[in-house]
Task: inverse folding
């Protein structure tokens, strides 16, 4: 296919996307139609430039934004409680606070009020590995919402959140717009993970804090402006959840918008139950093993857990169980074993060095 024919085919596709995008604001739609007309004129005179790609990419992004698509919230506190108990062991204080928070959301929604805008943003505070990300996912699952995580530890510029103008080479939307596009709905749960680790430079950190305040403040996020999209986008339906190891680097203005829920470190007893009843069955399944192919002597769990007593969370413990399962999987694939039972005699062999 000739380049000119290819351009016309692409323009037809873009035109269909503009016409079929539900909820696209009328003034923004007019802007996109004008862009397509401009691209048509460029294609007619056989003029191909980087500007063609720039405008075509912009139209593609804007028509991918979920302007009206949303999921319906599951307003069931009994289900929420069962879900939290099923997926998380211990952490009773944190779970009670989550249920109290969800109760206010449910009550406001049942009375026809904007629950998310009226509710403070949850800030989960705790050391690494105590389950902050998992708990945030459980909140989304409980409400029946799509979930997306944005790692704030890797944010080195406000442009990564707010996007870069399409006038610049390699421009793209910010992480917030990307999260909406990825989930395909306007009301996902977005976890801003490790907000305390955003940029180590003091001045830049304050700039990022200002953008976060705009994202989390219901008076401002109704018209969030991404530099790339260059059009106000309503984020009031998004449920933002933040996590942090500590709150020392967070601005006072940002903290005023937060509902702090502290995540406690796990005791050895809690780690034992979590590793035996929650982690191990999932890790064994993910390794392709059947329950009857790998068993661990119940008396050994304290010995498996104890080396990681210094670890406040369970990540190191999870990696240990993954290493055990991989070693067993290798033996079964090589035909050396059909079933492995880990006991006091062979535990040292299967534990990673």
Result:
């Amino acid at each position: 296919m000739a380049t000119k024919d290819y351009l016309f085919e692409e323009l037809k596709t873009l035109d269909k996307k503009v016409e079929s995008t539900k909820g696209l604001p009328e003034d923004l739609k007019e802007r996109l139609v004008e862009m397509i007309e401009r691209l048509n004129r460029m294609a007619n005179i056989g003029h191909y430039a980087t500007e063609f790609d720039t405008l075509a990419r912009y139209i593609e992004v804007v028509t991918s934004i979920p302007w009206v698509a949303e999921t319906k919230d599951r307003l069931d506190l009994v289900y929420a409680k069962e879900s939290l108990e099923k997926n998380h062991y211990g952490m009773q204080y944190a779970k009670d606070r989550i249920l109290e928070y969800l109760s206010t959301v449910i009550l406001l929604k049942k009375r026809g009020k904007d629950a998310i805008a009226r509710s403070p943003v949850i800030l989960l505070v705790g050391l690494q590995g105590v389950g902050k990300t998992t708990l945030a996912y459980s909140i989304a699952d409980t409400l029946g919402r799509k979930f997306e995580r944005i790692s704030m530890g890797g944010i080195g510029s406000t442009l990564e959140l707010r996007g870069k103008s399409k006038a610049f080479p390699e421009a793209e939307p910010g992480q917030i717009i990307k999260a909406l596009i990825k989930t395909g709905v306007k009301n996902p749960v977005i976890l801003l993970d490790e907000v305390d680790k955003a940029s180590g430079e003091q001045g830049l950190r304050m700039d990022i804090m200002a953008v976060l305040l705009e994202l989390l403040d219901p008076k401002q996020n109704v018209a969030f402006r991404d530099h790339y999209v260059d059009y106000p986008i309503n984020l009031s339906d998004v449920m933002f959840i933040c996590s942090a190891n500590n709150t020392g680097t967070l601005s006072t203005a940002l903290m005023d918008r937060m509902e702090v829920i502290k995540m406690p470190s796990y005791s050895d007893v809690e780690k034992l139950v979590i590793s035996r009843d929650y982690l191990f069955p999932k890790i064994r399944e993910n390794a392709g093993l059947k329950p009857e192919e790998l068993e661990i002597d119940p008396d050994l769990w304290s010995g498996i857990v104890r080396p990681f007593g210094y670890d406040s969370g369970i990540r190191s413990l999870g990696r240990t169980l993954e290493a055990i399962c991989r070693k067993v999987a290798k033996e079964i694939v090589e035909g050396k074993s059909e079933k492995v039972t880990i006991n006091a005699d062979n535990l040292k062999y299967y534990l990673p060095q």
In short: The longest helix spans residues 26-44. The two ends are 59 Å apart (CA to CA).
